[in-house]
Design goal:
The protein is α+β, with helices and mostly antiparallel strands. It has a 4-stranded antiparallel β-sheet with strand order 1-3-2-4. The N and C termini lie far apart (64 Å). It has a domain of 102 residues. The longest helix is centred in the middle third of the chain and has 11 residues. The radius of gyration is 21 Å and the shape is elongated. Helix 2 packs antiparallel against helix 4. It contains 4 helices and 4 strands, in the order αβαββαβα.
Length: 151
């Protein structure tokens, strides 16, 4: 049985100038037709909760890389990599729909991020933010400064 391809047209969005609410979709309409493809513009992986200076050093290292942030949600820490899927088309639809990975096949719009406001418990964008947070939650370092002399 062939998978059904989402239509490339977005008539209601073009007419109203805004995306419809999830509950206002008509029978046969697919939420993805109106979405900015949030789920295809990043991936997030759970990481161990930092409990020591060494753990926080790893997080600082993550954040020294482009398009990486760290957030917490419901007590779980995540590494978030802001990167677009190579199959995402300019129309925000999948150009590799027929051969998409299993994780995409299992993903459902029932609880997707269409209406999400992207508010996290904690959100770190810079190594300095992580350092400041670590200083607030950990005991002081024992005679060791984070900075080393330049060669």
């Amino acid at each position: 049985m062939a998978a059904t391809r989402i239509s490339d047209t977005r008539p209601r969005e073009r007419i109203t100038g805004r995306k419809p609410r999830r509950e206002d979709l008509q029978p046969g309409e697919v939420l993805c037709q109106y979405c900015s493809a949030k789920c295809c513009r990043y991936f997030a992986l759970p990481i161990d909760e930092p409990k020591s200076w060494k753990d926080f050093e790893y997080i600082r290292w993550y954040l020294l890389h482009d398009r990486a942030t760290v957030f917490t949600e419901d007590g779980t820490w995540y590494l978030l990599v802001h990167t677009k899927c190579r199959h995402l088309g300019d129309d925000n639809l999948c150009k590799g729909y027929e051969t998409r990975p299993q994780i995409c096949r299992e993903y459902s719009t029932d609880k997707c991020e269409y209406d999400d406001t992207w508010v996290y418990d904690r959100y770190f964008e810079t190594p300095e933010q992580v350092e400041e947070y670590a200083e607030a939650v950990l005991p002081p370092r024992k005679g060791r400064d984070i900075r080393t002399p330049k060669p």
